[in-house]
Structures are given as C-alpha cells and as structure tokens.
C-alpha cells in the first residue's frame, strides 16, 4: 500500500501521470510501451515474475521480464513485479531510494 500511496503522491504533485508508459523508466522491458503506471498499480500489466524468486525481486532489472503466459495487458493478475517496477520508477523521479522517501514522509516509523 505504501508503494501505491507514494506513486499517487507523485501524481498529486504533478510529477507523474497514471498514463505514463513504463517504457519511460524501463526501455528494455518487453511490452513496456503498452504498460502504464496505472496498469502496474491495477495489476493489469500482463507482466509475470513467476520465474523470479521473491527474495530476488529487488534485482529485477537484471532479468528478462516476459509477458505473463495466461494474461495480457488489461487482465488482472497479481504479480509482485508490478510494484517493484513502480518503486524503481519512483526512485527515478525523486532521485533517492524509495525507502528513504517513505521514512521522510513519516508514513511509517
């Protein structure tokens, strides 16, 4: 939930649009021109992290992320990869680590 709140905070500040293609932050990602910030938030990106161990999601950019086998952009499919990509996009926009931002906003202590 903190990731969604942080992203929507950037939207409220005018620093990001829900319609922004994720290719703006991840140009090498397969289908990134079709995937938007909103589709990541809604878990409708069609991306899958089935082949990536949860413990290694922080290093997601080192892997070739493939479109979900059973889904496509627009179809709900909960995958952690969506929020990992949102956290990386957030870092690109604010130029500091996501967790630092969360601590600075005092959403958690």
UniProtKB/TrEMBL annotation:
InterPro entries: AmpC-like, Beta-lactam-related, Beta-lactam/transpept-like
Entry keyword annotation includes Hydrolase: yes
Residue ranges of domain Beta-lactamase-related in the record: 2-86
Domain of life: Bacteria
Keyword Mitochondrion: no
GO molecular function: hydrolase activity
Keywords: Hydrolase
Protein's UniProt name: Serine hydrolase
Taxonomic path: Bacteria, Bacillati, Bacillota, Bacilli, Lactobacillales
